Amino acid sequence: MIELQHLTKRYGDQAVVDDVSLSVAEGELLAVLGGSGSGKTTTLKMINRLIEPSGGRVRVNGADVGGLPPHELRRQIGYAFQQVGLFPHMSVAGNVAVTPTLLGWREADIRRRVDELLELVELDPAAVRDRRPDQLSGGQQQRVGVARALAAKPRVMLLDEPFGALDPLTRQRLQESFVRIRRRLGVTAVFVTHDMVEALVLGDRIAVMRDGRLVQVGAPAALMRSPADDYVRQLVDTPCRDARVVDALLAAGDPGS
Amino acid sequence: MSEQLALLPEYLTAHLQLTLLALLCSTAVSLPTGVAVTRVAWLERPVLGAAAVIQTVPSLALLAVMVPLLAGLGVQSIGFLPAFIGLTLYGVLPILRNTVTGIAGVDPALTEAARAVGMTPWQQLRRVELPLAMPVIVAGLRTATVWTVGVATLSTPVGATSLGNYIFSGLQTRNYTSVLVGCAAAAGLALVLDGLVRGLAADGRGGRKRQAAAAAAVAALYLYAGLTLAAALAPRGERPVAIGAKTFTEQYILAHLIGGLIEEETGRETTQLQSLGSMVVFDALAAGDVDVYVDYSGTLWANELGRDTAGADRATVLSGVADHLRDNYGIVVAATLGFENAYAVAMRADDAAARGLTRLSELTPVAPQLSMGGDYEFFSRPEWTAIRDAYGLQLRERRPMDPALMYQAAAEGAVDLISAFTTDGRITAYNLTLLEDDRGAIPPYDAMVLVSARLAREAPDVFAALGRLDGAIDARAMRGMNLAVDERGADPAEVAADFLRLLP
After folding, report:
1. Interface touch A102/B118, C-beta < 8 Å
2. Which of A33, B71, B124, B342 is the residue whose CA sits 20 to 30 A from A128?
3. Quick one: which of A68, A54, A61, A70 has its CA closest to A20?
4. CA dihedral (B260, B266, B272, B278) positive or negative
5. Are B357 and B345 in contact (CB under 8 A)?
6. A105: left (phi over 0), alpha (psi -120 to 50) or beta
7. pLDDT for B292-335, tens place per residue?
8. Smallest CA–CA separation between B30 and chain A, in Å?
9. Contact B112 A85 (CB under 8 A)
C-alpha cells in the first residue's frame, strides 16, 4: 500500500534521512520508532509531501506521490500530529469538515459525516459540535484531530506522535480508542513515536530508525527476540527495565516483604 | 466662528475624499505586498526597508515632492492628485508591516495542519492565515487611518482642499478660532473612522451586528466621497478661474481681491488655492493648474532667472522677469500692483538705537553676537546669500521660523534680527526698524499679477479686468490691509472687498 524506495533527504551536506526503503501492507500499522534527530518525522512527512525528498521515491497504492499536485495527494491521506493544529477560528465541526469541504462534498453529507466521526472518536456531537477548540481538553482536542484526519475517508493515515503531549492515562485511553477505530476502518497507517510501549501496543510491525538510517524492521516479537544491534536491544528492553526499576523501588519502600 | 463653520461641509467633504480614497489604495497596495513578502523571503528586507524610508520622509515634504514629480510626468501636479498619492504612500507602511507581522505570527502548527488537510497555498492564505492575522492587520489599518486623517491636513500647501485650510490660513492670519476648528474637526474625523474600522473587525457577543452597522456606515461614507469626488472632477463647460496664494496674509488678501475683481468684471466663477508653497505655486502656474497669482519680481529674478541680486534696478528686474516668463512659460504679467514687498533686515528700534545701527554695513562687526530669524525659505534663498556676502555677515545663530511668528519673536527679543517683509504692518506695530541696504544687495520686489498662458490666450476679458489693478495699490495701502488682518483680526476676504469698493 505504501512503498518507500531509497528515500533520502539532505539539508546541505547533512543527510537527515539516508536511503530508507520500506513497505507497508494494506491495513497494516507500521510504527516508526526512534529518538530525536533519528529522521522518523522527516520520513513520515515525505510520504504526503509536507517535505519534498532529495532522492528516492514514495508510492502510495502503486502510484508515485509526485504524480499528483500536493494538495490533492494530501486530501487522500489523513494526518494527525502532536501539536494537533486545530484551527482556532473555526468550530469543532468546522475543523472536522475541512477536507470534505475542500473536496466539495454536499452540505448535508458533511454534517452527517461530522457527527459520525465525532461519535467514532467517542465525543458527544451535540455537546462539542459548535464549540471552539480552545474550550476542549487536550485529550478531546486530539480526538477531534484524529476525526479531522479521517474525515474524507482516507485509506492511508500518517500520525506523528499524536498522543505524545497527553498525560499517561489520557494517552492510554486514546491509544485504545485508536486501536478500535483502526480495526473498524481498516486503514493503513504509519505511526511515528519515540515510545517503545506505544510502538508495541499499536504496531503490527516496528521500524527502528537512528541517525537517518533504518536499523531494523520487524514484528514486535521478532525485534524483542533478535534485536539487530545494541541500540535496538536497549530500546526494546526499556519497558522491562522501567518495570524492574519500579519493582525495586516498591521492594525498598516496603520493609515487610 | 459661524463663518468658520460655514466652510466645514466643503473642507470636511474634501478631507473625507482624500482620506478614504488614500486608505483604500494603501490597503490595496499593502495587503498583497505583505502577503508576497511572507511568501518570498528575500523580498522582506527591500520591501519593508523601502516602506520605512517613505515613512521617514517628513509628511509635509512627501506631499510637496509629489508636485514636481507629477509636473515632470506632465499630469495635474497640484490639487487632489499629489495629496492623494502622498497620503497613499504614507499609509502603506503600517498596513504592510502589520500584514507581514500578522501572517508571520500564525502558529507554524496551523500552517502545517492547513497543508496537511489538503489546502492549496491560496486556500491556506484565505481560510487560515488571513483570518488569524486579521486582528494584527486591523490594528495596522487603524494606525494608518488615524495617520492619514492627520497628514491629510497637510494637503493644503499642495493645493488640495482639506481641514488643513482652516489650520494654515488660521496660523498665517492669527485666527486661532479657525486653527481650533480645523484641529477639532480632524481629531473628530479620526476618532469616527477609527471607531468604524474597529467596528468592521468586531467579534464576540453582538459582533455580527456591530460589524454590519460599521460596514454599512463605511459603505455610505465611500459612496458619499465617491459621488462628491466624481461631481467635483466631472468635466464642466468652463473651469472656474483658479487663483493661487502663498502662505502669508498679503497673499490671501490679494487672492480675494483678484477673485472679487474677476467675478465683478467678467461674471466668471473663481476658486482659491490657498497656502501653496512658493515654488509649488509657480510650477502650478507654469503647468496651468493655477491661472492667476501675485509674485514679486525680485523673487523670480533670483530663483527663476538665477540672476545676481546685487545692484539691479527696479525697471530692469521687472522687464527682465516679464520677458523671461513670457519666453519660457508663456506666463504674462497682467498688472504691476504699484508696491514692493521686499525682503529687509529688521530689528527692535530701541536695540538699533542703542547699538547705533541704521545701515546693514554697520551690522558687520556686531553680527557674531546676534541671532537672526527668517521665514522657512529665507536662509536657503539667493537673497540671503547676497546679503551675507555683500556685508560679510557671520551670525551667531540662524533660526528659520513661521513668518507669522517672526515679528513677535523679534519684539520679545527671542531673536535680534529678522527677515521682514517691507509691507508687513507689524513692523510698525511691534516697533521694529528696517536697516538700510546701503550696498544694494537686495533686489526690488515689485508685486506683479501673473497670468497663465492658457488664461491669457482664452480669457482676454479676465486679462483686461486685471489691468485695472495696475498701480492701484501702494505700499501704504498694502501695509494697512495686512495690519487689519494680522493685528485687528479682520477677515482677508472682507478687507479685499472693502478695497474693491473704493477701486476707481
Report:
1. yes
2. B124
3. A54
4. negative
5. no
6. beta
7. 999 999 888 877 887 776 667 888 889 999 999 999 999 999 99
8. 24
9. yes
